[in-house]
Amino acid sequence: MTRSAMRALLLLLVASLAGIALAEESEILTGTFVWERDDGEVSGDLEARFTSTGDKTWDVTFHFDWEGEPRIWKGTAKGSLKKGKLEGEATMDQTDKPSTFTFTGKFKGGIFKGTHARIRKEGEPRATGTLTLGR
C-alpha cells in the first residue's frame, strides 16, 4: 500500500470515528406538551432533539404541530438527560413576532416532567403549561 493510500485510509478511519462520537452525543426524546390558554388547553405530541455542546450543555430543537402547522423552536439547555434537573430556553421564530420560552423540570425514572413559560417584554416569565419527555 502506498503512503498516500495509507494516509487516505487513516483519514477515513478518523472521520468515521468522529462521526460515531458525534452520534453518541445527540439524543431524541419524545413526549407531549400541554399549553394552558384562557379558552382551554391545547395539547399535542412533542419531539426534542438534543445535541451536546459540552459538559451537560445542549443545543435543543423542539418539533411539534400547532393548529395543524409544524413548528420548530430552537434553543439551549443545561443539565442531565438521564436524571436530575434540566432547564433551558427556546425561541419561536416562525412568526413576525419571535417569542422566547423557558422550560425547567426534572428527570425521575427516565421521564422528564417540566413546565414552560413565555418571557414577557418586561423580562418576567408567564407560565404557559407543561411538558413530558422520555425515551
Task: Please provide a written account of the structure.
Strands 1-2-3-4-5-6-7-8 form an eight-stranded antiparallel barrel. It has a single domain (26-134), classed as Beta Barrel (Lipocalin), CATH 2.40.128.120. Helices cover 16% and strands 64% of the residues. With 135 residues, the chain is of the alpha+beta class. The protein has one helix and eight strands, in the order αββββββββ.
Please identify, by name, the CATH architecture. Beta Barrel
Rg, Å, rounded: 19 Å
Strand content: over 45%
Q: CATH class, anyone?
A: Mainly Beta
Shape: globular
Keywords, separated by commas or semicolons:
single chain; Lipocalin; 64% strand; globular; 16% helix; alpha+beta
Write the layout of secondary structure elements.
Blueprint: H1 3-24, E1 26-37, E2 40-54, E3 57-66, E4 69-79, E5 84-92, E6 99-108, E7 111-119, E8 125-134
Antiparallel strand pairs: 1-2, 1-8, 2-3, 3-4, 4-5, 5-6, 6-7, 7-8
Summarize the structure in short.
This protein has one helix and eight strands.
